[in-house]
Amino acid sequence: MRKLQIVLFTFVVLTATSWAGAQTLDWQAVKKITPFKVISVQTQEWTRCSFNRATEDELFCQVVPRRLASIGNKSSYLMFAREDIRAVRIEPVDQSKGFLDLILASGMGAGLDSSHQPVEFAGVKVGGAFTVDLQYDRIQGKSGFSTEGSAVLPFFRVPGPQRDAKKKYIKLYAEPGLGYRAGGGAFGGYSSAKVMLLLISDARWGNASPYVEFQRRFPFESPLQGDNRLTIGVAVPICQGCGIE
């Protein structure tokens, strides 16, 4: 008798839980999901896919291979009956993954050279995975102009992917490069180590966003006689990895 009571109690709890889960699925909200949003659909198991549309009775989505260029990889279109769906949730996606397609930026800043003398400068940046910086500067009171090419290597973001695309985060890029400064004062050719911190949200790619850049320049003739610089500016970045993987 005791065992029968336990079985009946377990059955009632599971049935109530299943019924409650079915009741909390807001199908009207599911129908309003933006196309191409990454979602997870729960039936007997969870399926991750890109939302296409939902009718009164069915949900349609697409499973995209991670490498679209791979031979034999094809997108799979899925259909779920409404009555089989237990839950639908929108998944956070890292829109900042991958190299930049394009970045247009302008900034200005200051720093110190090896003699602890002030350095002032302003310039622009244009490119993508590889950028060109053009800058006017003054070192120890002498004007000059520098041209610099750098790789733009994506590293990490803080915080990680979030469901709210409007929440801001910091994306870090490393920028090793080579350049040449002409004008008053000794400098000439140099190598450069830079780190760029971009403040952005997943909803703001392709829009103006603030950035901060830290740089150390190493002249070829005297690597220890370079300068340290801090740039503050505004950039319009377009991300190659934006969207579903």
Describe this structure in words.
- The chain is mostly beta strands.
- The protein folds into 2 domains: 2-90, SH3 type barrels (Roll), CATH 2.30.30; 100-239, Beta Barrel (Porin), CATH 2.40.160.20.
- The chain is built from 2 helices and 14 strands; from the N terminus they run ααββββββββββββββ.
- The strands form 2 sheets. An 8-stranded antiparallel beta barrel has the order 6-7-8-9-11-12-13-14. It has a 5-stranded antiparallel sheet with strand order 4-3-2-1-5.
- The relative contact order is 0.15.
Features of this protein?
55% strand, single chain, mainly beta, SH3 type barrels, rod-shaped, 2 helices, five-stranded antiparallel beta sheet, 245 residues, 2 domains
Short note summarizing the structure:
The protein is mainly beta and 245 residues long. It contains two helices and 14 strands.
CATH architectural name of the largest domain? Beta Barrel
The biggest sheet amounts to: 8 strands, antiparallel, barrel
Strand content: over 45%
Number of domains: 2
Topology:
Blueprint: H1 2-24, H2 27-31, E1 38-42, E2 46-54, E3 58-63, E4 76-81, E5 87-90, E6 100-113, E7 118-127, E8 130-139, E9 142-151, E10 153-158, E11 168-183, E12 188-201, E13 209-219, E14 227-239
Antiparallel strand pairs: 1-2, 1-5, 2-3, 3-4, 6-7, 6-14, 7-8, 8-9, 9-11, 10-11, 11-12, 12-13, 13-14
